Amino acid sequence: MHGEQAYLDMCRHILENGTKKEDRTGTGTLSVFGYQMRFDLQKGFPLLTTKRVPFRLIVSELLWFLKGDTNIRYLLQHNNNIWNEWAFKKWVESPDYTGPDMTDFGRRSQQDEEFGKVYEEQLELFKQRMLEDGEFARVYGELGPVYGKQWRDWQTTRGESIDQIRDVIAQIKRNPDSRRLIVSAWNPEFVADMALPPCHTMFQFYVADGKLSCQLYQRSGDTFLGIPFNIASYALLTHLIAHECGLAVGEFIHTSGDAHIYVNHLEQVQEQLNREPRPLPSLQLNAGKQSVFEFDVEDIQLIGYDPHPTIKAPVAV
């Protein structure tokens, strides 16, 4: 089976079996509960080929998580805009914002061309100020204690800090047969303080036959826009940690809770399903870097990626 087929089968399963549900964004979805995909990382890097997925954004976002960063300024410095809407929402809903009404900007920008132009202007002004004004970025670029904070600086009730990533790497090296190789991003005490509660909530590593595998549990997944990023991001994380630990890569297993397709993505999904998958690319890491914390964007290269063209779709915020 082609490495991408597991994802395409998931899309078909949701289209054929999904239940119509309302959601927090007001968009509406087709949803199924409980679905699992498996990707053999020995057979290629699982970046979709039936549409172009921007790999550099996946790399910079993962490195942002690994730095423990929770402010979008780093992402914007790497021309990564995938978290903009949540920070922008915080800005336009604040008492300091005095510009045009941006209420429900996500849907309105898709439905009203004139409003869409105003929204894009305001978003560009916001991004420019984020890059130029450190104090503004400190206040309005902050997303709260999201992934990076929980991965690298989990706060205990005793006021201590737990670096889950550093700890799990040490455990893999010291006791690879452990069944406790787990990292959690879901911290109930701080969920209300996050711009977006973690969708990819926890992951577990497994070592067998000299190979490192990873299983992700994702409580909620935007199947068309989000899950392709998540697959590639956690496959990349598996490669990076295997590299540091002197292991080969095994499988990446993606387990979904609420797996959904937004109703305004149905045409895009059908277009993608009509395309023929192409050979998967391979991943090349800078052999001169050992620790996952040493890697920069340019140290991670994709070889042989030849996808079909991009398929655009609106983000539900």
TrEMBL record:
Question: Mind listing the GO biological process terms from this record?
Answer: dTMP biosynthetic process; dTTP biosynthetic process; methylation
- EC numbers listed for it are 2.1.1.45
Instruction: List ligand-binding residues for (6R)-5,10-methylene-5,6,7,8-tetrahydrofolate.
Output: 222, 316
The record's listing under InterPro entries reads:
Thymidate_synth/dCMP_Mease, Thymidate_synth/dCMP_Mease_dom, Thymidate_synth/dCMP_Mease_sf, Thymidylate_synthase, Thymidylate_synthase_AS
Pathway the protein contributes to: Pyrimidine metabolism; dTTP biosynthesis
Record field: catalytic activity: dUMP + (6R)-5,10-methylene-5,6,7,8-tetrahydrofolate = 7,8-dihydrofolate + dTMP
Q: Which family does it belong to?
A: Belongs to the thymidylate synthase family. Bacterial-type ThyA subfamily.
Protein name stated in the entry: Thymidylate synthase
Specify the species.
Answer: Ectobacillus ponti
Task: Tell me the name of the encoding gene.
Answer: thyA
